[in-house]
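Problem statement: downstream parser choked on a complex file, so we are re-checking the raw output for the calcium ion run. The parser issue turned out to be on our end (a line-ending mismatch), but while we're here, posting the original submission so the record is complete.
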Amino acid sequence: MPPVSARLSPAMQVVTQAVRKAGRRLLRDFGEVENLQVSVKGPSDFVSTADLRAEQTLKEELSKARPGFAFLMEESGASGDESWEWRWVVDPLDGTTNFLHGIPHWAISVGIEKRIDADRTEIMAGVVYNPASDDLFWAEKGVGAFLNDRRLRVSGRREMKDAVFATGIPFAGVPRKAEFSSILHRIMPQVAGVRRFGAAALDLAWVAAGRYDGFWELGLNKWDIAAGLIMVKEAGGFATDTDGGDPYASGHVVAGNPILQPKLREVVAEGIAAVKARPAG
Ligand code: IPD
Ligand code: CA
Ligand code: CA
């Protein structure tokens, strides 16, 4: 099989070069973060700087190669032509809390979004790169999803009792804690396991790789999911929001293999409905 570099389209070559460059720098910073754990204040200021610098590197590299593309980036927001035809959707560091705590599970996520018409856009390609493991997940519409050179397929499990699902647990300052508890309460007794590893972009890439049978999380941002959603789709999986609609529009994501995703979505929707039905107060 030809190496990954020979199989990528020109736009994807641009992205992989950019994420590898930003990733090298982040990995050096990560080594420093591990040393800072013992300080009382911890490495949080250092990490914010590393995050911003990674975004800057990505912006420079991507705009050099494609000057006409707009950006949606976590730290600096939307920039470029408002009537863009193409844009980069970038999370320079997904899994910040892991990074901050010296846990080697974090990634750079870059999606390529195309405007189809006045009210419709589509993700055409995406890369999720974990520098600590050198795992480069990538997908392109109609080409497939890959981990480095290996083609990815979602898992073949069919039964809830065999399934391992990933999720995101709300934390301080984040809403929907009651919904999360209600959903988890319903899912726990039905499945082989639930995981919370702390990087939504990698969670979706791992669904594409068949490691998780599914993933749900409410209230995500476009930069968390742009790349991961096309990965799941190109690996033969499904991703919807909790009502079966577009997860990219709402940020509420239920992804999985084609058999288990509808079952997971149903339980997630039941959990949310149960909270809504509670008397106020
Ligand atoms: C977060 C991670 C986490 C998810 C949060 C995200 P960040 O992104 O993806 O897994 O639970 O909802 O905000 O802040 O590390 O880029
Ligand atoms: Ca994120
Ligand atoms: Ca981030």
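For whoever reads this later: Residues 10-36 form the longest helix (27 residues).
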